Amino acid sequence: MELGLYTFADVDPTANDKGKEGQRRLKNLLEEIELADQVGLDVFGLGEHHRPDYAASAPAVILAAAAARTKNIRLTSAVTVLSSDDPVRVFQQFSTLDLISNGRAEIMAGRGSFIESFPLFGQSLDDYDQLFAEKLDLLMALRESEKVSWAGEMRPAIHDRGVYPRPLQEVLPLWIAVGGTPQSVARAGALGLPVALAIIGGEPRRFAPLFDLYREAARRAGQDAARLKTSINVHGFIADTTDLAADQFYGPQAEVMNRIGRERGWGPTNRAHFDQARSPSGNLFLGDPETVAEKIVENWKVFRNDRFLLQMAIGPMPHDQIMRGIELYGTRVAPLVRKAVAEEKTAAPAAV
Asked: How far apart are CA 186 and CA 190, in angstroms?
């Protein structure tokens, strides 16, 4: 199982000097990605947003800067809001990233959990589903062939045009990010694309049937089971002790959830909600290295996921605490998880 991190590059939306605040966060972010590579994590993802509380509206640019400072870690969007972008430009940007990184680029495409990009780029929310379906179809065509002919309703047609540069990898990896909608999971399976499931509330094991649906949709569509991959993407934090992890993460996580909750009409969160979420059955993967490793492994036994991505850098988390969390993740959590998964697979290969 691949182990990694993802973030949205949170900044302080109330900062008076937004340029300076963005510069501070991106400087720290590059240090975090560099450390993740050094401690042996497999993947780092960066989510696209167009809001004052996030600095990553152009993930490919930031990931290209990270590519020059790293050697092994895979670099992916998490997510690219494909519905409001142009698939040709997305492909070109990530192909360029692939060349710079010596073949470590990936795209994680999704419809996005916020809507700011739609009016910003002149798209209508009435076309939400059709935009994504058509643009995903074009993006898949761009991956398969140097010259493309394509026609749809939401974008001008392309007639036998070459799209460059081509990536270093034979096929640029493309994942579909979903938030728990069965139709989205089934579509990814029918297309034979890897699927990443975001779990930010509720008991994780309740989402396991979605991966069964994914695999069944792929089987019905005649997709090669060997090409199917799954990821679970969650919130959490790692510190030297479980109490310290909870005390450090609660404030920033609550600030973000309450800020977004006010926009969406959610009720306010509190420490009791937080403590329930970090219980063994909850959605937060938080604690000392042994606690987090055990929870990752127990959920792997349920999901049999190929990848696990953790969002630690959320809200106003101090940079030094994030760096310590990354260090512990790579040097202590990852070895425990890899050893346990390997032993489980060796003991029961038929169940995998």
From this structure: 6
